[in-house]
């Protein structure tokens, strides 16, 4: 049987951890009560240390304990807490006894500081202190539950109104389509409305003052539908009226600018409104269109899913806390030989977090509405959205990880032996081999190393209860687990090393070199084809999610920036060597150098040299544009400061690339200055902003108040390690006189160190983000809602 304290720790909601009952602290109180019951007799010890200032106290304490143990009447505590009841059922006692035996080790670990002053307190004083603490915990749980319940109920009411508006607008839109088809008219009443003031929003107005009777009746239907749901346009003095006295209608549908089309539309609308700065001219406008309705429906559906998830978490919160109160009171009964738990549990069960059924009723209502309006009355389909099932861990994945790891080690050993026997790294064949094989295989090696580090991140985040699926907004049923990341890494490297062995064997035989040199290109095309493969094999949801995120990064700043987007963009800033290798490999095969073995085309050509700057700048540029977009959306100047960090890194990267081609004294000074500024900027942002460390008034010196890892020294070591790896650029200034193979090996080693630094950085970055969510008790995503009222004049 698992200890309940560990079971509670494993099942509680990480973001609400501080709002749960402090079970460990209550256990310590129970142990103090147990210690207070042990008599402190002089005859029990054989040690004599002479006289002590506590000798008079010992006599009083011994007399008190002798009275208690000789059947003295024990005083009652509070009336509500002293009612004696019968024992619990025999099965429950047996279960509690088993748990106590298993929790003995834990009690030994949680040693309570015990000296002679402990025995100055009587058992009744300890019990009173215990119940006072228990009352505080019940009140804490109650207040948190009431707050969250109120929040979710308000969300439910708002969503009901939004859903009713959506249904009414869909009805009006359907009526319009039917009438248009019946009358065989070329133009209808509804169309896309122009965007007015306000960012990322679409306004709709009905401004026609020369409407015919059918059109006017449809407009009146829309007004009536909206006014029925609390959006009143009749009493607004700022709105004009039509010829029939009806108010001009202003309805705002907030569709987030998540795509380039919406972003350009929002920015154009904002600039046009700022330049013109006058109300729109009267004209025949249409109220709304089908595309807007579909976007609004998708937003409302997502809001219902998040509401249902939040209600489920609150229900779990209630049941886990009730279980904790029951367990701790049973422990008290066993230690104090009293049966006070039944009466106190009655009071707990009358508390709001247990007696209230509003959450359950709202969950049933959400299920019903979602099934009816978003799942075509198919409950099974609705539950796939509301309660997505997580895939169970398969032992086959673990087996395959071990299998591919063994294959990789064996094949790599074979490759090393064959390379040595064939003299592949001698001066005679070194240049040709490094130009053809090195870019492709080192690219896959860096990618595999990054996947391995990501798998380690997933393992650490899971073991430390960091909710990375919630932070990245991953679907729990398709999210990648650490075993899956290790499987992708090992299978990729096994295939790459197998291709290296085959290439080396064929190259040592009588096969034509230009045919053999096609193997790295074929391997590259194979993995690109696997990445975009539409078949549901080899983690298709993860592959398509990766492609979607890369699209969002490349098209920055036109896509809305999510956490996973800028997290992945940060990974790309550490993979510039990989992108450069991809450039070299693409040039090598597209220019046909594998046939002629003429490498100057991809080394000294002007276009290639200019493209090297573009590739070195691209990751920093994308990340800077993401910062600009976030500043545009959130108006937070910290994003502009973060943008400056990536601009400084871009300048330093350009200076180092130029110095590699023009190793003059001037460029060396420029490299030192720009790299030093960029490094200081990056280190400050790493430690203070991304990791949240270096808090001068923290209880943990130069760290932060809340730490997930118990060993503080790990954080200090991580700070030093990140500093050392950040200054690896010094190698570019120290020009070593070494051969081509040693030079490429050194480049690969430094690139690998940067990947390791990024994987190390990832853990603390998400730890800080998780602690921010915990501090705000943010366990459910807030989905923006589409409909809200606005003035017709903007």
Automatic annotation (TrEMBL):
<feature type="region of interest" description="Disordered">
    <location>
        <begin position="186"/>
        <end position="211"/>
    </location>
</feature>
<feature type="transmembrane region" description="Helical">
    <location>
        <begin position="397"/>
        <end position="418"/>
    </location>
</feature>
<dbReference type="GO" id="GO:0016020">
    <property type="term" value="C:membrane"/>
</dbReference>
<keyword id="KW-0812">Transmembrane</keyword>
<feature type="region of interest" description="Disordered">
    <location>
        <begin position="71"/>
        <end position="111"/>
    </location>
</feature>
<dbReference type="Pfam" id="PF03105">
    <property type="entry name" value="SPX"/>
</dbReference>
<comment type="similarity">
    <text>Belongs to the SYG1 (TC 2.A.94) family.</text>
</comment>
<protein>
    <submittedName>
        <fullName>Phosphate transporter PHO1</fullName>
    </submittedName>
</protein>
<feature type="domain" description="SPX">
    <location>
        <begin position="2"/>
        <end position="346"/>
    </location>
</feature>
<feature type="transmembrane region" description="Helical">
    <location>
        <begin position="438"/>
        <end position="461"/>
    </location>
</feature>
<feature type="transmembrane region" description="Helical">
    <location>
        <begin position="518"/>
        <end position="539"/>
    </location>
</feature>
<feature type="domain" description="EXS">
    <location>
        <begin position="603"/>
        <end position="794"/>
    </location>
</feature>
<dbReference type="InterPro" id="IPR004331">
    <property type="entry name" value="SPX_dom"/>
</dbReference>
<keyword id="KW-1133">Transmembrane helix</keyword>
<feature type="compositionally biased region" description="Low complexity">
    <location>
        <begin position="187"/>
        <end position="201"/>
    </location>
</feature>
<feature type="transmembrane region" description="Helical">
    <location>
        <begin position="666"/>
        <end position="685"/>
    </location>
</feature>
<feature type="compositionally biased region" description="Acidic residues">
    <location>
        <begin position="89"/>
        <end position="111"/>
    </location>
</feature>
<dbReference type="InterPro" id="IPR052486">
    <property type="entry name" value="PHO1"/>
</dbReference>
<keyword id="KW-0472">Membrane</keyword>
<dbReference type="InterPro" id="IPR004342">
    <property type="entry name" value="EXS_C"/>
</dbReference>
<feature type="transmembrane region" description="Helical">
    <location>
        <begin position="713"/>
        <end position="734"/>
    </location>
</feature>
<feature type="transmembrane region" description="Helical">
    <location>
        <begin position="482"/>
        <end position="506"/>
    </location>
</feature>
<dbReference type="Pfam" id="PF03124">
    <property type="entry name" value="EXS"/>
</dbReference>
């Amino acid at each position: 049987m698992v200890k309940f304290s560990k079971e509670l720790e494993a099942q509680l909601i990480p973001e609400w951890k501080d709002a749960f009952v402090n079970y460990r602290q209550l256990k310590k109180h129970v142990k103090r009560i147990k210690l207070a019951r042990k008599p402190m007799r002089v005859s029990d010890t054989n040690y004599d240390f002479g006289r002590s200032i506590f000798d008079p106290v010992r006599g009083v304490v011994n007399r008190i304990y002798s009275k208690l143990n000789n059947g003295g009447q024990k005083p009652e505590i509070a009336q509500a807490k002293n009612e004696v009841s019968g024992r619990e059922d025999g099965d429950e006692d047996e279960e509690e006894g088993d748990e106590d035996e298993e929790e003995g080790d834990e009690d030994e670990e949680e040693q309570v500081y015990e000296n002679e002053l402990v025995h100055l307190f009587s058992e009744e004083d300890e019990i009173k202190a215990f119940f006072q603490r228990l009352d505080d915990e019940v009140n804490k749980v109650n207040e948190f539950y009431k707050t969250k319940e109120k929040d979710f109920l308000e969300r439910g009411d708002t969503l009901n109104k939004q859903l009713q508006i959506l249904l009414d607008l869909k009805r009006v839109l359907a009526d319009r389509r039917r009438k248009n088809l019946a009358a065989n008219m070329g133009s209808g009443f509804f169309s896309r409305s122009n965007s007015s003031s306000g960012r990322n929003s679409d306004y709709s107005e009905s401004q026609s003052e020369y409407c015919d009777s059918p059109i006017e009746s449809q407009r009146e239907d829309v007004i009536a539908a909206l006014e029925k749901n609390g959006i009143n346009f009749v009493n607004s003095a700022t709105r004009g009226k039509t010829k029939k006295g009806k108010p001009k209608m202003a309805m705002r549908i907030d569709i987030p600018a998540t795509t380039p089309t919406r972003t350009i539309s929002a920015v154009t609308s904002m600039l046009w409104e700022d330049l013109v700065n006058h109300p729109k001219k009267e004209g025949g406008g249409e109220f709304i269109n089908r595309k807007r309705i579909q976007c609004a429906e998708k937003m409302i559906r997502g809001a219902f899913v998040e509401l249902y998830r939040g209600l489920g978490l609150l229900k779990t919160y209630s049941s886990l806390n009730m279980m904790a109160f029951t367990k701790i009171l049973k422990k008290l009964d066993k230690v104090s030989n009293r049966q006070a738990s039944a009466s106190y549990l009655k009071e707990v069960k009358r508390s709001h977090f247990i007696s209230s059924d509003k959450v359950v009723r709202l969950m049933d209502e959400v299920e019903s509405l979602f099934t009816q309006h978003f799942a075509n009355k198919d409950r099974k389909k609705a539950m796939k959205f509301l309660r997505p099932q997580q895939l169970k861990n398969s032992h086959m994945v673990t087996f395959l990880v071990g299998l591919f790891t063994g294959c990789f080690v064996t094949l790599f050993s074979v490759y090393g032996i064959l390379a040595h026997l064939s003299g592949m790294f001698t001066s005679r064949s070194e240049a040709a081999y490094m130009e053809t094989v090195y870019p492709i295989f080192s690219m896959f090696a860096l990618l595999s190393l990054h996947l391995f580090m990501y798998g380690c991140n997933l393992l650490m985040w899971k073991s430390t209860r960091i909710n990375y699926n919630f932070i990245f907004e991953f679907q729990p049923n398709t999210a990648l687990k650490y075993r899956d990341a290790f499987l992708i890494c090992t299978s990729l490297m096994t295939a790459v090393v197998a291709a290296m062995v085959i290439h080396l064997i064929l190259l040592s035989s009588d096969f034509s070199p230009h045919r053999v040199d096609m193997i790295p290109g074929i391997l590259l095309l194979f993995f690109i084809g696997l990445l975009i493969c539409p078949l549901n094999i080899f983690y298709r949801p993860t592959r398509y999610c990766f492609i979607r995120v890369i699209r969002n990064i490349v098209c920055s700043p036109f896509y809305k920036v999510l956490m996973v987007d800028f997290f992945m963009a940060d990974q790309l800033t550490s993979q510039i060597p990989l992108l450069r290798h991809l450039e070299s490999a693409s040039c090598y095969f597209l220019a046909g150098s594998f046939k002629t073995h003429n490498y100057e085309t991809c080394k000294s050509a002007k276009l290639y040299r200019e493209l090297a700057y573009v590739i070195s700048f691209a990751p920093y540029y994308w990340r800077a544009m993401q910062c600009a977009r976030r500043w545009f959306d959130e108006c937070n100047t910290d994003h502009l400061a973060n943008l400056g960090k990536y601009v400084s890194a871009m300048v330093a990267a350009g200076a180092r690339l130029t110095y590699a081609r023009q190793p003059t004294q001037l460029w060396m000074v420029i490299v030192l200055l720009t790299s030093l500024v960029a490094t200081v900027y990056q280190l400050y942002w790493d430690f203070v902003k991304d990791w949240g460390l270096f808090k001068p008034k923290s209880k943990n010196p130069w760290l932060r108040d809340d730490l997930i890892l118990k060993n503080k020294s790990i954080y200090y070591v991580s700070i030093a390690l990140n500093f050392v790896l950040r200054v690896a650029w010094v190698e570019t200034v120290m020009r070593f006189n070494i051969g081509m193979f040693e030079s490429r090996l050194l480049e690969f080693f430094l690139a690998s160190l940067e990947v390791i630094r990024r994987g190390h950085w990832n853990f603390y970055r998400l730890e800080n983000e998780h602690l921010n969510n915990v501090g705000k008790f943010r366990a459910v995503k807030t989905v923006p809602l589409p409909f809200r009222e606005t003035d017709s004049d903007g």
